[in-house]
Amino acid sequence: MHMPSRDCCFFWLNWFFCFFFTIGLAEDPYVSFDWSISYITASPLGVPQKVIGIEGQFPGPILNVTTNWNVLINVRNNLDEPLLLTWNGIQQRKNAWQDGVSGTNCPIPAGWNWTYQFQVKDQIGSFFYFPSLNFQRAAGGYGGIVVNNREVIAVPFPAPDGDITLFISDWYTKSHKELREQVESGAGLGAPDGILINGHGPYRYDNAAVPDGIAYLTITVDPGKTYRIRVHNVGITTSLNFRIQNHNLLLVETEGSYTVQQNYTNMDIHVGQSYSFLVTMDQPSGSDFYIVASPRFVNSTASIKAPGVAILHYSNSMGPASGPLPDPPNEYDTHFSMNQARSIRWNVSAGAARPNPQGSFKYGQITVTDVYVILNRPVELIDGKWRNTLNGISYFAPSTPLRLAQQFNVRGVYKLDFPNELMNRPAKVDTSVINGTFKGFMEIIFQNNDTFVQSYHLDGYAFFVVGMDYGVWSESSRATYNKWDGVARCTTQVFPGAWTAILVSLDNAGMWNLRAQNLDSWYLGQEVYLSVVNPENDKDEVPLPDNTIYCGALSPLQKDQAQRINFFSRSSSRSKSMATILAAIFAVLFLTCL
Ligand SMILES: *[C@@H]1O[C@H](CO)[C@@H](O)[C@H](O)[C@H]1NC(C)=O
Ligand SMILES: *[C@@H]1O[C@H](CO)[C@@H](O)[C@H](O)[C@H]1NC(C)=O
Ligand SMILES: *[C@@H]1O[C@H](CO)[C@@H](O)[C@H](O)[C@H]1NC(C)=O
Ligand SMILES: *[C@@H]1O[C@H](CO)[C@@H](O)[C@H](O)[C@H]1NC(C)=O
Ligand SMILES: *[C@@H]1O[C@H](CO)[C@@H](O)[C@H](O)[C@H]1NC(C)=O
Ligand SMILES: *[C@@H]1O[C@H](CO)[C@@H](O)[C@H](O)[C@H]1NC(C)=O
Ligand SMILES: *[C@@H]1O[C@H](CO)[C@@H](O)[C@H](O)[C@H]1NC(C)=O
């Protein structure tokens, strides 16, 4: 029998090694982060405040990853209350265990740590993370998520010369604990104390409007270059108009979808929304320019002293920004903002930043299987407490997270009976869940009966925004739907006295949060969960993680934090068995060679 030569043998060994370890694993690398979440002192509006920092930073670090990467984030809760971080817009495909909202995870107790582990899969774009419990977002704790394309995937615009993330937000000098008490008491939030850009107060563009001594943000750019500017409204309740003096904003992406590329002089960005613009530094560089985020739709009596103002500094600039701030859109033109929203369309010919579930790029031709008309009302008293409702139900968060209750068959935690429309019955507080049909195609109409803009976010999915209009939605409204290039995103605005319609393909099994992004409404119960169960056993569904924290009815399963299994033994059983097989083949080849 002819024995393989040593060289040949090593060739195969080498080949095997290279194939699996450079191609196999290099394709889906692991990156890990260790984040301590703690209070830090910051003075965004000149008043020292306790804000939530991540690794001592406010805003937190940018999670800069590439699609298909496996991300491990060991979160240490050094706050004085329970914590969960949620990854706004990251779809957590078949992996609701990592979603970080009260219906999917037990909170990380103060003093504990917990490692999120998820794969950013088939999505490319701009998202952000934030603390999801107890009104904590009002104290910060947020940061950006950039999901880059793999190099083999084309992007429908030339590579920009730089990548800049801006967080714009309303801001209150009261702590998140004071604010939540105020909201519970029915007093509402009132007008914010200011608007921040990347955690900084306004540049002193006007001595009367802005006090001295406030630190502001400066972005330095080179003349002639083009930058991708990702803008997130991470605020708690205020819609903001974003603009840069004398510069066009070329819209290219929103929440993981490439848009038809159009220039805007300003953009209304509602709570929880994310956009990418390409901005070319094409102005004569005599001076700096203003970057502005100003509140929209707030009554002038309650209006805020100063908008958010940062500085765009050309590296060869010879002087400070000057002149009046660039004009906002007309406050009383209620149609401006809706028309602008309708003008944002999907570039259907661009390579997909996100996959098209079941050919849903032709979403207009798919048969709708379920219709929900979801109405929100202004804050109301239910059993003596101020609550917000959806279809007359204010969400009650049970002590056992819904997804865990589902996994362990804990009965009585929730009911799959969320109504398709407002019922003729008194409002109530309940844990009523939407029973989604796996692989169904759902139409949801949000009808906003409140007096301010709401934005709604769905975890686990991107949905197509197909229509919005004033008045009450009716079946004939469907004739106005955009059935061709409505943009797929995860957060949509609903104007007061108006409706917004979305379509979503329920191809991601899990228990998914549908919430108002406006923190006050959300805190008072304006949310619901959507249960999507695959009736077949799907081997790709990520199993319950080994490090799951248990609480509520499942607390007896919880071990002491010190006894927990370590970091490296937590990969899924599938990848563990794959690793064992690879190791065995490698050993056999190696021994044969000797
Ligand atoms: C993000 O990572 C990519 C490469 O993975 C790098 O080119 C880019 O500069 C990084 N961006 C930021 C903002 O750090
Ligand atoms: C807590 O952090 C330690 C490392 O400091 C890690 O070994 C452990 O797995 C973490 N716990 C959880 C539940 O992720
Ligand atoms: C859409 O994407 C295609 C493909 O990348 C690109 O060539 C085209 O310019 C884009 N169209 C618009 C209107 O943005
Ligand atoms: C957008 O505006 C810039 C000037 O700022 C211009 O060069 C570019 O052609 C415009 N693009 C589109 C798609 O209108
Ligand atoms: C603005 O004022 C009008 C009329 O007083 C009132 O109905 C509305 O609720 C107010 N809006 C906000 C956002 O406070
Ligand atoms: C939920 O929907 C599934 C079909 O998707 C159905 O089989 C089941 O009976 C429903 N459950 C309830 C409680 O209505
Ligand atoms: C809310 O609903 C009531 C009753 O149908 C209606 O009179 C009112 O105009 C609605 N308000 C808004 C802002 O939709």
TrEMBL record:
Q: Which residues form the signal peptide?
A: 1-26
Instruction: Report the superkingdom from the record.
Output: Eukaryota
What membrane topology does the annotation report for this chain?
Answer: Lipid-anchor; GPI-anchor
Concerning Pfam families, the annotation shows: Cu-oxidase (PF00394), Cu-oxidase_2 (PF07731), Cu-oxidase_3 (PF07732)
Which GO molecular function terms does the record list?
copper ion binding; oxidoreductase activity
**UniProtKB keywords:** Cell membrane, Copper, Glycoprotein, GPI-anchor, Lipoprotein, Membrane, Metal-binding, Signal
GO CC terms in record:
plasma membrane; side of membrane
- Please report the stretch or stretches of sequence annotated as the Plastocyanin-like domain: 37-151, 163-317, 400-536
Among InterPro entries, the record links this protein to:
Cu-oxidase-like_N, Cu-oxidase_2nd, Cu-oxidase_C, Cu-oxidase_fam, Cupredoxin, CuRO_1_AAO-like
Q: Can you tell me which family this protein belongs to?
A: Belongs to the multicopper oxidase family.
What's the protein called, per UniProt? OLC1v1006606C1
Q: From which source organism is this entry? A: Oldenlandia corymbosa var. corymbosa
Organism phylogeny: Eukaryota, Viridiplantae, Streptophyta, Embryophyta, Tracheophyta
